[in-house]
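Changelog-linked ticket: glycine example.
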Amino acid sequence: METVKVNASKKYDVIIGCDTSALVGKKVKELSPNGKVCVVTDDNVAALHLDSIRDRLKESKIKHEVFVFRHGEQSKSPKVLFELLEFLANKHFNRTDVLIALGGGVTGDLTGLAAAMYMRGMYLVQMPTTLLAMVDSSVGGKTAVNLEAGKNLAGVFNQPDLVLCDTRMLGTLPREIFCDGMAEVIKYGVIADRRLFELVRDGGAIINLEKVIARCVSIKRDIVNEDEYDNGKRQLLNFGHTLAHSLEKLSNYEISHGSAVAMGMLMIAEIAWKNKYSTERCQDEIIDALLENGLPISCPYEPSELYYNAVGDKKCTAGLITIIIPERIGRCRRLELSLDEFRELLKSN
Ligand code: GLY
């Protein structure tokens, strides 16, 4: 078992290992000795993991309710968020109670936002069930729902009180959802750690999963500790994401987040090389890493379509957009461009 300690506006542990779910009752009691719990999860995850989590809460004599919503990005919406808040009110939850987000990125983001909003804040435990949520979305406190205009446009920073990554849960993931998470692992390699990148590119991540997750979380922890509110260094974590959010929206969320990040990283690496922003040609190695991990390497949309949707993203302010450019594998930097420069850059791909 590995524990990564986050020291942001809130201090909390990310505990990673096989069967860390067994700790849930004890840890909830430590947070809120007399509190009750609402487990928030989607219908897919409920079928796989809800009973065992409920059994663990029962063993610790913790009263709990369950809020189950339909799986999929379409549920990351103001509508489902307010259904959850109404549910909490109808069941008389209060601010000393605990929300448990049991699921992937949609569940974590939605529940994290509800935990910040309900009575202006209640305890939040993230129990990510996908690789993507373990290495990225459950840690660092970004919460949001999507608006019609784009992804993650309504949200707040709300750090969890605890993250329990139970690697046993990864065993039930469909292959394409597991691969989705590998896109984020590759991202960490490109922005901060060549050795991690090489391990993943060469197919070694799967046998070192606990260590790989802990390494990704440590990289994210270091960045979040330095720039929790995304004003500078944290933007490095958005490598590939500006185009990814645009791709997801264009496809009406048919393209998964991980696949979109894969395409976004590759396009930016190609653009960076063509325009002499990179000191090293990264795109061939990125292609190898994506293919090794079952991720796509071609994009079905034109640069003009990507541009139009990207400029509505949060990464775009006052006519400027910040993109993350790989200088070489293991090192990225921020590049601020005017929208015209960005459009020209996209066309160069
Ligand atoms: N997923 C990017 C971040 O947490 O900043």
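Closing comment: Example verified and attached. The chain has a mean pLDDT of 95. The longest strand covers residues 320-328.
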